[in-house]
Amino acid sequence: MFKEQIRNLYRTNLNLKKEEILLIFTDTEKGYLVDLLKEFREVGEELAREVRHLVYPSTGVHGREPPEELWRLTFGDAAVDELVQRDLLWKILEKDQFPQEEVVSVLREKATEVPQVVVAFPYYSTTHTFFRKVLTEEFGSRYASMPLFDPTMFLTSMNVDWEFVSRLSGEIADVLTEAEWVHVKSDYGTDLEFSVANRKGLADTGLFHRPGDYGNLPAGEAFIAPVESEAYGRLVILYAPDRRLERPITLRFIDGGVESIEGFEDYRYFVEDIFKRMPSARFIAEFGVGTNPKASRPDNVLEAEKILGTVHIAIGDNHTFGGVNRVGFHTDYVVFEPTVRLGGRGWEKELLQKGKLQKI
């Protein structure tokens, strides 16, 4: 049904070559994703030397490491057996502290035929995992992450001028790198200021052609890891990752972390439970700016955070893109029609005014 669009994704976004190994996987959270995997596999077999595929049980939360079975499919039994023998694999999967250099050394020594291209579309994201990080940073895999993907996106936010998205995302990422602080406000109550000093802005361009390129599909954002201990103010949330809230809730930040949650909505209790189980999940993790003019859907965070004229703020894990917080949770919240000011020593500028991008 979507084979033409999948073929275009492989060729345009990932530059998949005939001599390469392709890894595709999803989870059991949504049946339509399992059906979609079959189409990805069939098209992939036309274009790649080898296709590896897996459906694994849902992890239930964004940012949790994928299961051992996927590690074995990706790196091979010899490498994973060595990690198990050294008592390292469970620490990785639980996002416990572990000697990263030792893990990388084992994988480099023992892993064979690591896939050059990865298409990950489990409902729950693998972007902010060590699994993704080691593939892109150590093995140069090109990695498309597609959590919460809906096939209708092939006709909207995936049907875009990727050169435009790439150029705009890069320009805004450069501005974020130069900045030391950011201030986000909205007419419905968000008023949050945080530090991005000495952090690097990154561009999610949708074009993953170079070794180690990774990002979302649909793509379209510039993002940065704020300083985890320096966020103050309030973030008003209108949407959970996959639905509009019945009533808004407010996260109040002090010293970088969520100090309290206000508002009566079931999603509040979900977040509070996450904080009880994973206290480090309460810290600010990401600031992003949407750059995709074809993105418009507010009730699916994969697309919502890409909407041109929005920004998003995440809490939880950010150790894979320049931060220091390692925790099994990462979720983004979109701010609609924001006014955003940022600056550094001796300069200040308005990036967005009520959702309108200003001259960069």
Please tell me about this protein's structure.
Keywords: Aminopeptidase, Hydrolase, Metal-binding, Protease. GO terms for molecular function: aminopeptidase activity; metal ion binding. It comes from Aquifex aeolicus. This is Aminopeptidase. The protein is α+β, with helices and mostly antiparallel strands and 360 residues long. It has two domains: 3-149, Thermophilic metalloprotease-like; 159-357, no CATH class. Helix content is 29%, strand content 29%. The protein has helices at 3-13, 31-47, 68-75, 77-85, 89-93, 100-110, 130-139, 162-178, 266-277, 301-304; strands at 21-27, 50-56, 117-120, 142-145, 181-185, 191-195, 202-204, 214-216, 221-224, 231-240, 243-254, 257-262, 284-290, 311-316, 330-335, 339-344, 347-353, 356-357. The N and C termini lie far apart (40 Å). The model has no long low-confidence stretch (mean pLDDT 97).
